């Protein structure tokens, strides 16, 4: 392999190669050149909802997208809305790239979220539920059942549900109970038959029980009925309040602030501080109250008062509330109602050289760099096999790896433990501040430490988000580096549904770069020289701005220029402004974004040469790719960083430059497919509207990118197709 960065030039030394773009001499950019990031996120979740509304998709996949929408929105409120409210209450500055008052931003979010939740509920009631019924999957109510079904469910209730219920009264002797975040609850008003006094009680719907209860055990998967757990409980309240008259019952749910704030520089023990903060998270202030649309004003008034929540934060919805419960239905074993089964292939370079033998990953990687594309190509037979082979190989002396999110029974962690127990030097950088995975990562960190792994937690004030693994192997009396740099987590479970890229390489320079970076993360080294990497927070933003400036200058001088970027989020103002200036210089700019995009494309005098596309489907588009024409010397990077302030300024991120011609061609081919007008996608307009393009003028479906890649990569990996 030829590395086009020579020994005197490093990826962090762009100051020596490129002059900054002359911003002062450029036309002033308009003030209202950014889209609001929170509203852009809600627009992303609307695209998820549009998949649920699409009758061409298998119905259980549509149910799954409804559940994804609900789960996404929960996290949005728990983190983004909660963070905005906290900063307003405490008087902290509120980030806004649109120049509006924070209270106006919250008002706009509330209006958009109300509209989306109502549309979400309607999609279930009017579209997905009837489609499920047509397929033989019926979600029914108690009133629709016959006496035989009710008798069976009464028995189920008394044996499986009643023993775990805990009704809590509210009266002078019983204060209003704490309502845990995201728990589903029944508000119950009862009348004491002896005194005539009305009382309020709360019944929590047990989260450990199935949300959808099968009506009759004799029903087959082809014709089955379910009733929601809360409906079943509501129709047995007399068992919970004997001697009381049940006047009314309603369903409600509270979302709380679950954002975690840790002042790392004020604590000596990060794990203990984080555990304390996780305990506090459970008692964060309410930020959203969802109630069934039939709730009376007396009950609603009580909840609003006791929870200290505003009317703007109340969402009235038709039951069932919390459609994230549809994840359970979406797992029903009806293959014809799901996407066709896809089995990942083994990357052609990693196939065994002889039948019935295990592939030698080190031998394969030493011959040629390997570019992996998950989930089309198997994580288990590539990254996982690489680390497992490293753990068992007597010639391997050391393994160093970052862990941001991993699965509960991770073979990756087990491989590190096996390596340490066999006497190898093993370093694991565990990011215990990974949101909502904090407790799991603390547990893994302690398990790794007990096995003898050197566990570190990164740099104070920064999250370590880069996806890196480095193996040091002794070969013929010399040490050789084998490296993996990816765009996604070392998580075998999410690797089946997240689209990601990864580079396996034996390139010595990449290995030296990673050695220096790991030394910086685990010790006190401050390393500024990387030849194949761009690393945040010190150099990544600067390096990308220099690359954009180089394309801008090339266009101004009449030379070929092009920028293509694929990210999850495009928010950073400095990057966006640089892209605007590149567009004004005539550079064709293509942005392929999954989620948030604050850039306004196609605006006269600002961004005529910028296109923004979004693709959503059965897999979560997760890879980050940065491609620049480079005046004939393509500069193409993959890595972990999105274009957001936190990624560029408050995280350790790493991009690696691809140099193999085959890899460069593959990346450009993926861009060509995604941006083709015959590919189904959403197009962003300058006013922030996303327009779905899924059919041609004749109404025929456009090509599905992920289906195309499945077929292309499967064909490439067949025997006889090895390159």
From TrEMBL:
One of its GO terms (molecular function) is metal ion binding. Residues 149-329 form the Polyphosphate kinase middle domain. This is Polyphosphate kinase. Residues 360-525, 533-697 form the Polyphosphate kinase C-terminal domain. Residues 34-140 form the Polyphosphate kinase N-terminal domain. It catalyses: [phosphate](n) + ATP = [phosphate](n+1) + ADP. Residues 1-23 are annotated as: Disordered. Catalyzes the reversible transfer of the terminal phosphate of ATP to form a long-chain polyphosphate (polyP). ATP binds at residues 72, 498, 594, 622. It is an enzyme of class 2 (transferase). One of its GO terms (biological process) is polyphosphate biosynthetic process. Its cofactor is Mg(2+). It comes from the Bacteria. The active site is at residue 465. One of its GO terms (cellular component) is polyphosphate kinase complex. The gene is ppk. Keywords: ATP-binding, Kinase, Magnesium, Metal-binding, Nucleotide-binding, Phosphoprotein, Transferase. Mg(2+) binds at residues 405, 435. Belongs to the polyphosphate kinase 1 (PPK1) family. Residues 13-22 have a biased composition (Acidic residues). InterPro entries: PP_kinase, PP_kinase_C_1, PP_kinase_middle, PP_kinase_middle_dom_sf, PPK_C_dom2, PPK_N_dom, PPK_N_dom_sf.
């Amino acid at each position: 392999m030829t590395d086009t960065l020579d020994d005197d030039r490093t990826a962090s030394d762009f100051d020596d190669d490129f002059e900054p773009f002359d911003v002062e001499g450029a036309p002033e950019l308009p003030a209202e050149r950014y889209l609001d990031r929170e509203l852009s996120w809600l627009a992303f979740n609307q695209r998820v909802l549009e998949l649920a509304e699409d009758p061409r998709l298998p119905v259980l996949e549509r149910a799954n997208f409804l559940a994804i929408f609900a789960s996404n929105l929960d996290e949005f409120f728990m983190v983004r809305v909660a963070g905005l409210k906290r900063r307003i209450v405490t008087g902290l500055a509120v980030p806004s790239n649109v120049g509006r008052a924070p209270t106006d931003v919250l008002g706009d979010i509330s209006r958009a979220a109300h509209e989306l939740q109502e549309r979400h509920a309607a999609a279930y009631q009017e579209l997905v539920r009837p489609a499920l019924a047509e397929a033989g999957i019926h979600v029914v109510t108690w009133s629709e059942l016959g006496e035989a079904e009710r008798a069976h469910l009464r028995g189920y209730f008394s044996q499986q549900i009643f023993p775990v219920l805990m009704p809590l009264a509210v009266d002078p002797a019983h204060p209003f109970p704490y309502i845990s975040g995201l728990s589903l609850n029944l508000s119950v008003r009862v009348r004491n038959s002896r005194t005539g006094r009305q009382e309020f009680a709360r019944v929590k719907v047990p989260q450990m029980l199935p949300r959808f209860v099968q009506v009759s055990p004799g029903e087959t998967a082809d014709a089955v009925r379910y009733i929601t757990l809360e409906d079943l409980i509501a129709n047995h309240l007399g068992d919970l309040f004997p001697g009381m008259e049940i006047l009314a019952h309603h369903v409600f749910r509270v979302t709380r602030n679950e954002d975690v704030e840790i002042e790392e520089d004020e604590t000596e023990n990060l794990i203990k501080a984080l555990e304390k903060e996780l305990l506090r998270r459970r008692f964060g202030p309410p930020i959203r109250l969802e109630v069934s649309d039939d709730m009376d004003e007396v009950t609603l008034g009580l909840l609003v008062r006791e929870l200290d929540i505003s009317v703007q934060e109340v969402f009235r919805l038709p039951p069932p509330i919390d459609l994230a419960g549809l994840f359970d239905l979406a797992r029903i074993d009806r293959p014809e109602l799901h996407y066709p089964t896809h089995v990942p292939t083994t990357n052609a370079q990693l196939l065994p050289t002889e039948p019935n033998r295990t592939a030698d990953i080190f031998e394969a990687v030493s011959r040629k760099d390997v570019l992996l594309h998950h989930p089309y190509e198997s994580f288990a037979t590539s990254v996982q096999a690489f680390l497992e082979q490293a753990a068992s190989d007597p010639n391997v002396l050391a393994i160093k790896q970052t862990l941001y999110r991993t699965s509960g029974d991770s073979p990756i962690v087990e491989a590190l433990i096996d390596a340490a127990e066999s006497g190898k030097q093993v370093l694991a950088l565990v990011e215990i501040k990974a949101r909502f995975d904090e407790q799991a990562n603390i547990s893994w960190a302690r398990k790794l430490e007990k096995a003898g792994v050197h566990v570190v937690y990164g740099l104070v004030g920064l999250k370590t988000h880069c996806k890196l693994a480095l193996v040091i192997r002794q070969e013929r009396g010399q040490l050789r580096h084998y490296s993996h740099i990816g765009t996604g987590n070392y998580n075998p479970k999410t690797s089946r549904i997240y689209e990601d890229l990864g580079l396996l390489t034996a390139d010595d320079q990449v290995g030296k770069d990673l050695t220096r970076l790991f030394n910086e993360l685990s010790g006190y080294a401050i390393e500024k020289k990387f030849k194949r990497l761009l690393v945040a927070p010190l150099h990544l933003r600067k390096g990308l701005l220099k690359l954009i400036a180089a394309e801008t200058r090339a266009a101004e001088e009449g030379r070929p220029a092009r920028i293509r970027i694929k990210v999850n989020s495009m928010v950073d103002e400095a990057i966006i402004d640089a892209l605007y200036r590149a567009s004004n210089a005539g550079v064709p700019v293509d942005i392929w974004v999954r989620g948030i995009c604050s850039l306004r494309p196609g605006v006269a005098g600002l961004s005529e040469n910028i296109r923004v596309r979004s693709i959503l489907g059965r897999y979560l588009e997760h890879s980050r790719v940065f491609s620049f024409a480079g005046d004939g010397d393509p500069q193409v990077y993959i890595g972990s960083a999105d274009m957001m302030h936190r990624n560029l300024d408050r995280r350790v991120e790493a991009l690696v430059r691809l140099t193999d011609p085959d890899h460069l061609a593959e990346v450009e081919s993926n861009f060509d497919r995604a941006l083709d007008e015959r590919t189904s996608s959403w197009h962003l307009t300058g006013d922030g509207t996303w327009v779905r393009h899924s059919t041609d003028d004749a109404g025929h479906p456009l090509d599905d990118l992920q289906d195309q890649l499945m077929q292309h990569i499967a064909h490439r990996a067949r025997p006889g197709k090895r390159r």
